[in-house]
What we know:
By secondary structure, this protein is mainly α. The protein has helices at about 25-35, 55-80, 85-95, 110-120, 130-140, 155-160, 170-185, 190-200, 210-215, 225-235, 245-265, 270-275. Helix 4 (about 110-120) crosses helix 10 and helix 4 packs across helix 11 (about 245-265). Mean pLDDT is about 80; it is low at about 5-15.
Amino acid sequence: MTLGGPIGEGGYTDAPTVPIAEGSNDGVEAEQRRQPTQPMGIPRGTPRPRRLPRWLRRFLIVVMTFALVATVTFATLLLVTPSVSNAPALARSFDLAHHAAYPGPPVPARFAAALVSTEDHRFYSEPGVDPLAIARVIRGRATGQPDQGGATLYQQLAKMLYTSGRSGAPVELEQMVLGIKLDLSYSRAEILRLYADIAYFGHGYYGLAAASCGYFGVTPAGLSWPQAALLAGLVQAPSADNPIAHYHVARAREAHVLGRLAATGKLTKTEASRAYRQPLHLVGGPGTGCTAG
Length: 293
């Protein structure tokens, strides 16, 4: 053991200095203390996972909260909205009240294609509502643009059967939930038939059979492409587009539907143009052998 070195001028420390013995662990322990600690079971030197930025964590919290609220709201609406098991019974009562036959004949392919193309071109793949159309409507209302319509055929059927004469955002939300219920309860063919049985086509005609016989003197199965397109175009504004009272307006609507048939691939542009040039054969009353049933 040696005395410590000088401190100041000519001074000595009283504390002895002890050299570190060879093989001592003091130096190793000091080095370990200088190294960052690692969680148990993770090899030393493994980089720690980086935490998400604060703004991203907050954003995810907001999204998850919104999703939770939406889920709870939707579940509540499923419980409080009426069952749709009585839809056929309501359609029957509706037709009886308007002196229309129920059930009507099966919906022919031409009318089904024309209706779907112009009213709800995602009808065969959507779950009763069209999220893309809903987003378009919300954006349009937020920016003050004209309402382009976003109701599916399911929602339109729900409106006719369950919420007729009512309007407003809560009613639209109810129609959306009822549309989902209708999709879960009935096939596409059944939805189209219920729709065609109770839709109003103007000029006092309720149901596709009555409209087909009344305007053209043929059963729905005998509709030509221009006739089917004109009838499909009537459901949005049946009085304003009535071909008996407003022929040129009705023809413009027919042209729009034929254009939609071409846009969705049901007809070529040439076929759509040829169909528009064909005569409609409006008769304004049932023909021989044509019945609304």
